[in-house]
Design brief:
This protein is of the alpha/beta class. Helices cover about 25% and strands about 30% of the residues. It contains eight helices and 17 strands. The two termini are about 20 Å apart.
């Protein structure tokens, strides 16, 4: 049976779009190729606990709609305020504290937020889509089609795609576990400037709230490009960089690497989403800045527009 809206991609933007369209009275189905929804809002079970390997945190921002969703997550114990202060490490190794907006984290991993958004929706997981056209998915007639994924991935399904001209950067996320904590207790995370290998380091035990001695480091785009075919090869230079940047002598007891070929858009389109008859698009490339709140807002706005039409 055809549905009013077929969303291809089960990340936070696709789920927000599906939720808004469903709340607006439309029949909706979400197709996702993964075993679980979440996209780059990814938590992977490593060392018997969820480790956030995609987005590092989120900021609610000024959107009242998103803040209402966040308040619901907080009330149910799915999200919590984490920190407004990070360390900044410059090219000379000097560390300074930098305050900013309150960053939020998820005790069960950020994927738990995507699972919450998907609750009650018609979501088909491990479903690989080969071809998309206006009003058609893999040759079957559907209602509106929404591409909720990076433009280069969408182009593989359509031959061309809205937003395909926007450049994206890769990242390899490397998780590192020690038997005991090897860094100061007040180190929530660190922005790294001028390093050839690492751009950000997060204390995963601190943001999750379980005090696990686990760090997650995100590589530079340049380092990631060298290892897209073999992400594990990025572990050694990342370990060396983390040890040098944080002054850690012992080697980690265990490591794990995850590749993100399209981790973040270099620039954004400005418009909240792309809308055309039969084929639309949403995601964090369709806003003012690339962020979790942007991805949710893009999908939510598109879903409401589809319902209104």
């Amino acid at each position: 049976m055809a549905v009013d809206v077929m969303v291809v991609g089960g990340g936070i933007s696709g789920l927000a779009c599906a939720r808004a369209a469903s709340d607006g009275g439309l029949s909706v189905r979400v197709l996702d190729r993964g075993r679980r929804v979440g996209g780059r809002l990814s938590s992977r079970t490593v060392w018997k606990r969820a480790v956030d390997l995609g987005a590092s945190y989120f900021v609610p921002g000024r959107s009242e709609d998103f803040r209402e969703v966040v308040a619901g997550w907080e009330a149910r114990g799915l999200a919590r305020p984490w920190t407004d202060t990070f360390v900044v490490i410059d090219a000379d190794g000097e560390q300074t504290l930098k305050q900013g907006p309150m960053r939020w984290a998820a005790p069960r991993g950020l994927r738990s937020l995507a699972l919450d958004l998907a609750e009650g929706l018609d979501v088909r997981q491990e479903h690989t889509v080969a071809r998309v056209e206006p009003y058609r998915v893999d040759g079957d007639d559907v209602g509106e089609v929404v591409l909720a994924m990076p433009g280069p991935q969408a182009a593989r399904l359509t031959g061309t795609a809205p937003g395909v001209e926007l450049a994206w950067e890769p990242v390899i996320a490397v998780a590192l576990r020690w038997p005991t904590r090897q860094w100061p207790s007040d180190l929530r995370g660190a922005f790294v400037h001028g390093d050839p290998d690492v751009t950000f380091i997060a204390d995963d035990g601190d943001r999750r709230g379980d005090a696990a001695p686990v760090l997650v480091a995100h590589t530079t785009a340049e380092r990631a490009r060298l290892h897209l075919d073999d992400p594990a090869a990025a572990i050694s230079p990342v370990v060396a960089a983390v040890q040098r940047l944080l002054g850690i002598a012992p080697d980690p007891a265990a490591t794990f690497a995850h590749r993100w070929t399209f981790a973040r858009p270099v620039e954004t389109a400005g418009a909240p989403f792309f809308r055309a008859p039969g084929l639309s698009a949403c995601g964090d490339a369709w806003g003012e800045d690339a962020a979790v709140r942007t991805a949710w807002g893009s999908g939510h706005a598109l879903g409401r527009a589809l319902a209104a039409a």
